[in-house]
Amino acid sequence: MKTLQSTLLLFLFVPLIKPAPPSQQDSRIISDYGTNNFEETLFSQDYEDKYLDGKSIKEKEAIRIPDEKSFELQKDESTIPLSPKKENDEMPTCLLCVCLSGSVYCEEIDIKAVPPLPKESAYLYARFNKIKKLTAKDFADIPNLRRLDFTGNLIEDIEDGTFSKLSLLEELILADNQLLKLPVLPPKLTLFNAKRNKIKSRGIKANAFKKLNKLSFLYLDHNALESVPLNLPESLRIIHLQGNNITSITDDTFCKANDTSYIRDHIEEIRLEDNPIILGKYPNSFICLKRLPIGSYI
User: Fold this and answer.
1) Where does the signal peptide begin and end (predicted)?
2) Per-position b or e across 127-161, b if 16+ CB within 10 A of its CB
C-alpha cells in the first residue's frame, strides 16, 4: 500500500519539474569561446599568408617533414668552419681614432702608447694623451709618415732608432712633454718642435742638427738649455730659444769666426729673450746675420 502511494506521488510531481534554460551568462561564455576560436583561426591564416607565402613549398615541406639526408646535410654545413672575414687589420685603431685620407687623429682619448697605424698613414695627430714613451716598433712598418704631432703628452724617453726608417718625415712635434734629451732625428725634417720640455744642453748631441739640410724651423724654447745648440744647419729660417738658461754665445754660434765675409742668408728670426744673457756683450756673434736676435742687449 505504501509502495502504491509513493508511486502515485512520483507521477504527480514529475510533470512539475522542468529543465532550467541556459542562463544568459552561460550563453555569453559559449559565444565568447567560439569567437576566440574564430579569431585564432583567422590569425593563424594571416600569419601563414604574411610570413610563409614568400617561402617555397619545398622549404615548408623541409620544415614539416625533415628526412635523414637533409638533417645530416644541415648538420655537416653547421660544422664547416667559416672563412675569416677580410677586415682591415687596423680597424680597431680607426674605431678608436679618426682615419681620413692618410691622416690619423687620436687626440684627447687618453691612450698611453702609439696605436697600430694603417700602413698608408702619412699624418698622425696624437695630441693631449698620456703617452710616456716612443719606441722603434711604433713606426717600423709605416714608411710614408710625413708629420708626427705628440703635443701635450707625458713623453720622457724616445728609443734610439725610433725615427730611423722614416725617410719621408718632414715635421716632428714633441712640444709640451717631459723630454730630457733629443733622439736621433730623420734627415728630411723641415720642422722640429720640442718646446716646453726639460731638455738640457747635454741632452743634445753636438751633431744632432748638422746633417738636417732641409730644417727650416727649430723650436726649443722654454727648456733648460745652457747654450745654443752647435752646428745649426744653413737652411734654418726661424730659431726659437727663448725661456732657457743660456748665459753666453760665441762667434761660431751663428757665424764663422774665421770668415768675415760669410753671410747667413736664410735666417729670418732668432729669439733669445728670457735668458740670463746680455747680447750686447757679444757683437761679433751677429755680424753674419741680416737681423739681430731678439733679446736683451743691456
Assistant:
1) 1-19
2) bebebebbeeebbeebeebbbbbbbbbebbebeee
